[in-house]
Specification:
- By secondary structure, this protein is α+β, with helices and mostly antiparallel strands.
- It has 4 helices and 3 strands.
- The chain has a 3-stranded antiparallel β-sheet, sandwiched between helices.
- The longest helix has 10 residues.
- The protein is globular.
Length: 87
């Protein structure tokens, strides 16, 4: 089971509408449960974001690092890590 930092959960709560039309969580606890249910992951670098997408069958060939960072599934965290949430 993933353990998500408070910073990660708050960031997801604040930015969740970049991926979902309507909020899927209203509290930190709901955010944590949602992220666990959809098996979200936290990675350290954009290179790891690219590897994750490649391993999960997404065609990222030709995408720049900026395009990867702007993908709706990718949430940049204040500490420099990235939360990946598949919608």
């Amino acid at each position: 089971m993933n353990e998500f930092s408070e910073e990660c959960l708050v960031t997801f709560l604040r930015k969740q509408e970049q991926l979902f039309a309507e909020p899927v969580a209203e509290t930190v606890e709901e955010a944590e449960a949602f992220l666990e249910d959809c098996m979200a992951v936290v990675v350290d670098t954009l290179e790891e974001v690219k590897e994750y997408f490649e391993e999960n069958g997404m065609d990222v060939e030709g995408m720049s690092m900026d395009e990867l960072e702007e993908a709706s599934e990718v949430f940049a965290l204040p500490n420099g890590q990235y939360l990946i949430v598949e919608g």
